[in-house]
Amino acid sequence: MATNLDRLKKDLDRLIARGESLKLAMDKEIRGDAFVKQIRAAIGEKEGDALLKALPNFATEYEAWYSESLALLRQLLPARVDNFIGFYEKPKGRKDLTNENYVIQDYLRGLSLSQGGRVIVDRSAAVQQFNQQLAIVKAAKKRFESSLFEMRQLVQADVFDSEIGAARELLKNKFLRAAGAIAGVVLEKHLRQVCDDRSITVTKKNPGVADLNQLLRDNSVIDVPEWRHVSMLGDIRNLCVHNKLKEPTAEQVTDLVDGTDKVLKTVA
Q1: In which band, very low, low, confident or very high, does the pLDDT at 5 lie, cut at 50, 70 and 90?
Q2: Cα of 263 vs its chain's centroid, Å
Q3: Burial (0-12, 13-18, 19+ Cβ within 10 Å), 137
Q4: pLDDT of amino acid 267
Q5: Which of the four, 29, 137, 193, 203, has the lowest number of CB atoms within 10 Å?
């Protein structure tokens, strides 16, 4: 089931894709036949004609794109809202039309300025303004993804801290295997998350501490002493969970709990 965050991400992706199409549509309107020839030369006549046919009409579709983008920016990147609006709206108190103060409203109205038969400013001045708007929407997506990452990290850290606290309480009450099992799960989850955050491919279906530890070493995330430390923690975890013939000692489980807590803070 799609969440509000999923829908927001899809909206951003759609706005960026539509913005790229509007950018091409603007280029076509300004450059005309030269743009058509360039597209056909780049991707072939058949594919080029199909792309050109699919381009939106800038004048009729920009306003909807602008309004929806503005609404999302107010949620995700409010600090850039004024900039976004400024590339669209005519500046207050503007007296002369120049390349520097030309805005997208001017483009939609078809404004240009010539003196003595020489073009001073024309619709091409709006290209940079729209490029800036599209760049702001793309920045909103990056900020959104960064925020999700930060939220996930914070939530995960709280969960892990809580679980380490539970393991310490079990250790205090002499439930050694249970304390070791909880700490071991936290250690494994954290190592897997580090692999994911660093885009390290995990091919094994159900990797354990040893597998993830080796991947982090192979990818230079941890050095040899850290690898040995995590290996030792993994051995204690296996003793707590799998070896029914030998009981873990309080000292071993303490090392596992404390060691896992340290890995959470130092391996990322």
Answers
A1: low
A2: 25
A3: buried
A4: 85
A5: 203
Copy the structure tokens of residue 265: 């803070």
pLDDT of residue 1: 40
The CA distance from 25 to 136, in Å, is: 19
Query: Distance between CA 194 and CA 264 in Å, rounded?
Result: 10
Q: Residue 218 corresponds to which amino acid?
A: D
- Judge if pTM exceeds 0.85: no
The upper half-sphere exposure of residue 88, i.e. CA atoms within 13 Å in the direction of its Cβ, equals 17
Rounded distance between C-alpha atoms, residue 34 and residue 98, angstroms:
25
Q: Are 187 and 234 in contact (CB under 8 A)?
A: yes
What is the arithmetic mean of pLDDT over 206-216? Answer: 92
Q: How far apart are CA 144 and CA 151, in angstroms?
A: 10
Distance CA 125, CA 204 (A): 54
Q: How far apart are CA 87 and CA 226, in angstroms?
A: 52
Q: What gap in Å lies between CA 267 and CA 188, rounded to an integer?
A: 12
- 10 to 56, 61, 73, 146, 248: CA distances (angstroms): 20, 19, 14, 16, 50
pLDDT in tens, 69-100: 998 888 778 889 999 999 999 988 888 899 89
